[in-house]
Amino acid sequence: MDGTAVEVRAVESVGTDTVALTLETPPEFDAEPGQFVQLGATVEGEEVARYYTLSSPDMADTFETTVEVDPDGSLTPYLANLEAGDTVEVAGPFGESYYEGEQSVVVLAGGPGVGPAVGIGERALAEGADVTIVYEDADPAHETRLATLASEGATVVITDDVSSDDVVTLLADSLGQTFVYGFANFVDEATAALDAAGLDTADAKVESFGPAPE
């Protein structure tokens, strides 16, 4: 991959089989919460690269990505075992579905979509915006950051069904820019919930992570 080598500052467990990587910010790295980067490394003699969404509210000196670790994956176990001082290759940022200073945001997140959800939520709340996060996961990650967001005034709902009547009712009463992050099946369910709530799905900022791992 055509990237920049950056130093790993920290690797922290933030849930079951989920880690947050804090990396030094490369020169002229202009990114916003909700965008994604490509991380690459040489693993057992083979160059491997994958895309991960940013999960930090800003990228001033360091930035963070949240990685759901697949024990059989080609890159995620390697990333999870990195230590401070190691290096990885970074390219990007990429993506058009990111926070742009909206004063009211509603983020629907499934699985690893919690990364951009907390990054956007923290940035938007710091800028005085209204924040709603609906997070579908049977085994949530980033619970500490989500709890802090809730204590600081955000509406945070953790559910096992983004299309439930309670979520649809919440969405119907919500105003602002809608974001959707997750695997393809979650994106389908989330956009159906937005439609059921009477919201225009064409206005949503959507980032699909592709098919969910089997």
SSE map:
Blueprint: E1 4-15, E2 18-24, E3 36-43, E4 46-53, E5 62-68, H1 76-80, E6 87-94, E7 104-110, H2 114-126, E8 130-136, H3 143-151, E9 155-159, H4 165-172, E10 177-182, H5 184-196, E11 205-208
Parallel strand pairs: 7-8, 7-10, 8-9, 10-11
Antiparallel strand pairs: 1-2, 1-6, 2-5, 3-4, 3-6
Low-pLDDT parts are: none
Q: How many structural domains?
A: 2
Tally of DSSP helical segments: 5
Find the count of extended strands (DSSP E, 2+ residues): 11
Portion in helices: 10-25%
Largest sheet: 6 strands, antiparallel
* Strand order of the biggest β-sheet: 4-3-6-1-2-5
Spatial shape: globular
- Class from helix and strand fractions: alpha/beta
Architecture (CATH level 2) name of the largest domain: 3-Layer(aba) Sandwich
